[in-house]
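REVIEWER CHECKLIST
Item 1: Sequence provided? yes
Item 2: Single chain? yes
Item 3: Sequence as submitted:
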Amino acid sequence: MTKTKFVYVTYIASTLEKVFQAITEPAVTRQYWGMENVSDWKTGSPWRHIDGKTVRMVGEVIEHAPPRRLVISWAWPQEASDRTKRTRVAFDLERIDAMVKLTVTHDELEPGSDMERGITEGWPRVLSSLKSFLETGKALDTWAGKR
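Item 4: Structure as written out by the authors:
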């Protein structure tokens, strides 16, 4: 079966370092996402996406090249041991004048899967909140209307 991918591009008035930190620093991630990304961010290390004490997603660091690129695997915790169920997320950051072009590519998705449906709605919400947070200091209520 052919896998699919989802790509989202946004431009943020910030620095490469601040955007990269916002993706990898749990205390910052919590402020705009409501969850934390936790890892030592070394290639091959595990990472967890945590909501309070609940682990929502897991994976491992595939590539870590701050402040320009981060690639992680991504899976539901109950499916993490099945490598065929893992998807992949690449965060690519590029400086353009006074902005950062952030491209998030989430690939290796099963067409029509719950994962594909979830990230297709989730990434635009999260990345819009990230942009607002870094530019204004105020995050969006990412999950408004979803509770």
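Item 5: Key structural point noted by reviewer: Helices lie at 16-24, 26-33, 114-136.
Item 6: Recommendation: ____
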